[in-house]
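Translate sequence into structure tokens.
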Amino acid sequence: MNSAVFCTVVPPHILDRLSQHEDPAVYGPARRTLERDALLRTQRRITTVRGVAAPTATPSDKPDRTIYDAGHQQTLPGTKVHAEGDQPSGDATVNRAHAGLGATFELYLKAYGRHSIDDSGLPLIATVHYGEKYDNAFWNGDQMVFGDGDGELFGDFTLPIDVIGHELTHGVTQHSANLDYFGQSGALNESVSDVFGSLIKQYALGQSADQADWLIGSGLLAPTVHGEALRSMKAPGTAYDDPKLGKDPQPATMNDYVRTSRDNGGVHINSGIPNHAFYLVASQLGGNAWERAGKIWYATLTGGGLATGAQFADFARLTAATARKLFGDGDEIQAVLKAWSQVGVPTT
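Result follows.
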């Protein structure tokens, strides 16, 4: 039985700051989003995920996607508006959700031989137009949910494909390493979602590691916001610096590790450290990041050796062992060892 955590793409520290703003157009949506997220988080904590039945046949190499429309209500899943094989919708948000689910399915299948989120062909379900000016997207253990954003600071949450990939990857983690959502294991949980969210975008765009922007949520922030994304894997701490949102607090190395009791021990903040390690490995190796760096991370996540409470050093040691197992004593293991050293996480 896997436990599911309630995982959102916009971190609580951003919404907390916005909720204290003096402008109702800013604090209103933020407060409603925080209240809704708190309720959903509690609901997740007191329920368990249904066991997944073993597949009776070989899972299909084609995704099985269904999109629902919440109609700005908060009841899931909402009204069914698009099924696999349907013609494109007149609603661009529905089409983007459909495409993002498909891009995620494709990266996991083509690069890693994984059949959907659970590796058993799990149907992919998404609900769009959730809530009123809801400033988030989340995976709830069973499906994806997208808000439309408030139009003031955040746009439609189906706009960045890496946000979709990020949230669905929480499902992959749930069905594999099942990392605890607290402290360093929680930051690893968040980081893995950023890593594969970025790889899904790179794969869909045909980008090499050098061509990628390594941003999470690029295109989500409104034009008036001083920022380019929610997070930067290339340069953690630089994604935004805005009077309303505040400054990106992510550290790039253990020297700046943030100790806090908020956000489950800073899972959205300290994820910058393993994020940066992956970026360093991918950029050192060059080429398509999903091919070597991504294979090392994927095999580490799904190989069965990663404890649910794994710390950064545990993950670092396992990525090094995995690199050697997959590729021998070549460039890959050297890139992994060097990257973790640069961010201050020991591998021995």
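Note: The CA atoms of residues 183 and 261 lie 9 Å apart.
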